[in-house]
Design goal:
Oligomer: single chain
Strand content: 15-25%
CATH architecture of the largest domain: 3-Layer(aba) Sandwich
Helix content: 40-55%
Mean pLDDT: 88
Number of strands: 9
InterPro entries: P-loop_NTPase, RapZ-like, RapZ-like_N, RapZ_C
Number of domains: 2
Keywords: ATP-binding, GTP-binding, Nucleotide-binding
Radius of gyration: 23 Å
CATH superfamily of the largest domain: P-loop containing nucleotide triphosphate hydrolases
Protein name: RNase adapter RapZ
Organism: Blautia ammoniilytica
């Protein structure tokens, strides 16, 4: 039997993760009071059967004393109980946005301020984050991408990568992505916009891609960019960062930035220590605006 404790900061996706585990035929219990945890664990052999092979238990800051929980988890380990901890996390700005969109109040926002509730909860949950076997940062994950991560770990038993790196192309005329950690301006490269046959295409088309990359400056830039990113990533990991957004920008986010983002992504994914995703934020904007 696989026993998973699903926890994390409010608004990061704990409930969604539990539902996905339930779909994967885990027996799921959410918001179990901490004093009942030992009793629940003692009943797990009775729960186990043909229909129940795995168990997932949801715990958050509302479940009770975290000090008591820490003691119980230590006792469970000493008694030989095997369990894994999945910690759901997200950036503070993303959490605030989610709470505002849903018009819900944060469970620990005693003063009514969401950011104060987040600060208090992070302090309360810090020991669980340190103990976690898996940390999934949902700041930049779509629901289907979260499901893929859950399935990788708890269904397919694949090795999990705690660091998720997003390579994002964008257009400066639409604004710099607010969640970008690193921003690179590639407007110094030859612009396919001024080539009539390439103008209606995008960096997703081979003709545009080859036009941009068939340039000594672009090749030298890619070598330096790849080298710098490969140097930075392990240092970010060492500091505890679980999500990194590398934003590549050109004027409209259609030609040069898309090409460079594609090329950087193709080089980075050779490193299987981390998770990678590629996104083109503005590649279709001009086409939509013309309709």
């Amino acid at each position: 039997m696989r026993f998973v404790i699903v926890t994390g900061v409010s608004g990061a996706g704990k409930t969604a993760a539990l539902k996905m585990l339930e779909d994967a035929r885990y027996f799921c219990v959410d918001n179990l009071p901490i004093p009942l945890l030992e009793k629940f664990v003692s009943l797990m052999p009775e729960i186990h059967g043909e229909d129940v092979q795995n168990v997932a238990l949801g715990i958050d800051a509302r479940s009770g004393s975290m000090g008591e929980l820490e003691l119980i988890l230590d006792k469970m380990q000493e008694a030989g109980y095997q369990f894994e901890i999945l910690f759901m996390d997200a950036e503070d700005s993303v959490l605030v946005k989610r709470y505002k969109e849903t018009r819900r109040s944060h469970p620990l926002a005693m003063s009514g301020r969401i950011d104060e509730g987040i600060r208090l909860e992070r302090k309360k949950m810090e020991f669980l984050r340190r103990k976690a076997d898996y940390i999934i940062d949902t700041s930049h994950l779509l629901t289907r991408e979260l499901r893929q991560e859950i399935d990788k770990i708890f269904v397919d038993n694949e090795e999990f990568k705690n660091m998720m790196i997003s390579v994002l192309s964008f257009g400066f005329k639409y604004g710099i992505p607010a969640d970008a950690d690193l921003v690179f301006d590639v407007r110094f490269l030859p612009n396919p916009y001024y080539v009539d046959e390439l103008r209606p295409m995008t960096g997703l088309d081979d003709s545009v891609f080859n036009y941009v990359m068939d340039n000594e400056t672009a090749k030298r830039f890619m070598g330096k960019l790849e080298d710098m990113v490969n140097f930075l990533i392990p240092n970010y990991v060492q500091e505890g960062k679980t999500s990194l957004v590398i934003a590549i920008g050109c004027t409209g986010g259609k030609h040069r930035s898309v090409t460079i983002a594609r090329e950087l992504y193709s080089r980075l994914i050779k490193n299987n220590e981390y998770g990678f995703r590629l996104e083109h934020r503005d590649v279709e904007k001009d086409r939509l605006l013309k309709k």
